[in-house]
Design goal:
This protein is mainly beta. 11% of the residues lie in helices and 57% in strands. The radius of gyration is 14 Å and the shape is globular.
Length: 136
């Protein structure tokens, strides 16, 4: 059984977020604002449905899914794109692959040393790595 990633997590580091946003085609003004934000992740499991909320003072984004079931995702408030997403457990990582307009897009969450790691959002040749600490 994979380690639970459920809980509320506060961002402690954010590496190459700007490069990732450039790969997505996000405007310079929005990128400048986004780089100053500290994100909070809330991960919940409701039966066989996972809900992942990414929150900041600028925008919130919620995604819900069942493991191993492809679903349509519209990245509203992010890069405003449609894609087909599939989330699976691979070893102890929750991994999402997204098929759509941008190549090599997806993410992976896992817990290591009491921190939630997110190889956030890889897109084309850019990879953003975020680390979150669990709220007590």
């Amino acid at each position: 059984m994979p380690v639970s990633i459920c809980g509320t997590w506060e961002m402690v580091s954010n590496v190459n977020f700007d490069g990732y946003m450039i790969a997505l085609g996000i405007s310079p003004t929005t990128r400048k604002i986004a780089l100053k934000l500290k994100h909070r992740k809330v991960v919940e499991q409701r039966g066989d449905v996972y809900v992942v909320k990414t929150m900041s003072t600028l925008r919130n984004y919620t995604i819900s899914f069942r493991l191993d079931e492809e679903f349509h995702e519209f990245t509203k408030g992010l890069d405003e794109r449609n894609c087909k997403s599939l989330v699976t457990w691979q070893d102890n990582k929750l991994v999402c692959m997204q098929k759509g307009e941008k190549k090599n897009r997806g993410w992976a969450h896992w817990v290591e040393d009491d921190k939630l790691h997110l190889i956030s959002m890889h897109c084309e040749d850019q990879v953003c790595k975020q680390v979150f600490k669990k709220n007590a």
